[in-house]
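Methods: holo model generation. Sequences were used as deposited, without trimming of termini or removal of tags, and paired with ligand SMILES retrieved from the corresponding compound records. Each pair was processed once, and we did not select among multiple samples. The sequence and NAP SMILES for this entry were:
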Amino acid sequence: MTAGAVNPLARVLVIGGGYSGLRFGQAAAALGAQVWLTRRSAPEGGGNNAAEAASPLQWLPYDSAAGQAPALPNGLTHVLVTTPPGAASGGDAVFQQLLEPLRQQPLQWLGYLSTTGVYGDTGGAWVSETSPTEPGLTRSRSRLESEQRWLASGLPVQSFRLPAIYGPGRCPFTQLRQGTARLVHKPGQVFCRIHVDDIVGALLHAAALPASQRPAVINVSDDAPCPSSETLGYAAHLLGCKLPPVQRFDAIAGAMSPMALSFWADNRRVSNHLLCQQLGYRLRYPSYREGFAASLREEQASGLA
Ligand SMILES: NC(=O)c1ccc[n+]([C@@H]2O[C@H](COP(=O)([O-])OP(=O)(O)OC[C@H]3O[C@@H](n4cnc5c(N)ncnc54)[C@H](OP(=O)(O)O)[C@@H]3O)[C@@H](O)[C@H]2O)c1
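and the model returned the structure below.
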């Protein structure tokens, strides 16, 4: 993992210490940085229980719905924003509330987690960072607006466009074990994905670059866009369990929820050429094969499985 960006002098704030944010915070703390993370609910035990006290991570309560930013620690050098824009409000309360407080900080780098949904549907064609942004879904349109606001903020922002995030606790193992996994076939449809530790690795790699060499927008996607039936098949192989029967997308689409249906609306292949060839980042998990196997090992080791 790149150590250059986040060093013992770094003071890191993660706005949204959820799945990816927590993993990033833990990696930064392991490199010696001081790390604060926000979450909406108060920590169990009010932050005073033994586990919280022993952790190098410090938690700040923050819910943008409450209408104001938290009091930020002084001297922040690195910030990661993982919060999604509020689709309903048509704006981004996190941006509105935090922009001015962040302008008061000696920031060297701000990473914003965006989505590859901003490219819209390309019928399976490849997209790069220079491809047109033509989001079809409402949530992807508000994401693009939010990304553009951060990029135009005057802060040292890089936006990281992510496909489906997976990793320990976010693989199809539980659904397969419980018999709730669905094997759906839609001809020609592929999905892109990224292991959470490659998000963390790419963030640290990008932040370590000299500011003048940091692209504003970077796709963070692995080398293996493929149908979800392929990834489900591999997950079943790792577990040694049977796959459910194949269902044709056309036959079941009418019974899908609008949210479930929306995941099938876009079809594209996301290039990581900029990250991996031009910027020299080496993926830890180039495909779901290594990534699923490592995730299963970690789930088993941590008692999740
Ligand atoms: N999941 C995917 O496959 C995927 C794919 C592409 C892009 N993305 C985007 O990438 C980002 C990171 O994904 P993730 O799966 O790591 O996200 P996640 O686990 O859902 O974490 C999101 C974080 O944002 C915080 N948050 C949400 N709404 C907030 C609000 N109104 N005020 C303050 N904090 C708020 C959450 O707080 P709590 O901890 O209190 O819940 C959580 O810490 C997200 O923006 C997501 O939309 C996700």
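The chain is about 35% helix and 15% strand.
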